[in-house]
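Revision sheet: structure tokens.
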Amino acid sequence: MKVAMVGTGYVGLVSGVCFADFGHEIVCVDKDPDKIETLNAGGVPIYEPGLDALIERNMAAGRLSFTTDLADAMDGADAVFIAVGTPSRRGDGYADLSYVYAAAEEIAGLIPKDGFTVVVTKSTVPVGTGDEVERIMAEHAPRDAFEVVSNPEFLREGAAIDDFKRPDRVVVGTKHSRAESVMRELYRPLFLNETPIVFTERRTSELIKYAANAFLATKITFINEVADLCEAVGANVQEVARGIGLDKRIGAKFLHAGPGYGGSCFPKDTLALARTAEEANVSLSIVESVIDANEARKRRMANKIVAALGGDVHGLRLCVLGLAFKPNTDDMRDAPSLTIIPRLVDKGADIVAYDPEAMEEARKHMPDIDYAESAFAAIEGADAVVIITEWNEFRALDMNRVKRLMNAPNLIDLRNIYRGERMRDLGFSYTNVGYPAPAEAEAAQ
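Predicted:
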């Protein structure tokens, strides 16, 4: 099949490349000529493990191309995907749908009047957006020449290719038989893996995406609050998480205590869901509490660092390892580091940071801190090391070397990637998340 993918951001690029790897002919479209030039030259504007090799392979096979010309991309296309950004709107947190609606209008003007085109909303959009896309398009194209379908994405940054090719499920929102046939053919390679494909109504499909992300954000926030309780009463949050995660009704994923969630999805999607509920006069008090608790969590982590260093960080050199909101991505959107680091700077700390992939993006948000070329370069001369993002290369650092390089052996591990007993045996003052202080732990025994 031939597919036009409108938008070469994270979702559009990964989806387009993976569809091409399924064997479809994919033309990715973007209004940014510099981005298209980069892609045609073999560059990749985002960091996602394995994506560069997949782009190279499918371009060489003639299944994948990039253009700024939407008319050319849509020529003969069976489906057109809208995969543009839907950032939180300033002021009210609602999803900004202006890019989606602009794309819909432009697509409508190019739909052949004597054919049939499936227009698929891949962008994360609030309930009812498909109805408005349909209305906009009907002003510019014959109603029987197109059908609007919802097909939300469930891609984890850092594992997006595997998520697309081996998904837990595919959700498709349409009750139109011809559109359903097109979508079945697009995803036919997944039938070999017996992937569940959920066909439902369009509004239901739109809500599934938001409900899924809100639930996962809730799990993260829940275990973070339990971590606070563990610290207060002398319990171990990792063992609590394991104990409840073995219950199949709960599950072990997203039960890792840390500095709060961030990224391109959870923050904006929980906000958008809360605003949708508000407009519908429905109370989503749990989701609203999750939003508030997560923001407070990030601020508390800065206070936790200060407290671990005696209540005053003025003049201290703090090494921060990890800036992206999670490993295996360069995405800085709503990353906990963007809240934690400025608060430490405000309290007089000197920050030197290192992240394997996100430093270029981080500099746009935090130009006034220092950046190092390696973890050990950042560690040298530090009064404390703070781990914010759990990149694999931080999990097995030579801790004897770390201690020798540091000005003072203070390790603050906001991701619990080291064992407290081992670190203290090595002579570190070690602070982590969701564990009692050493004296309290000894008293509990």
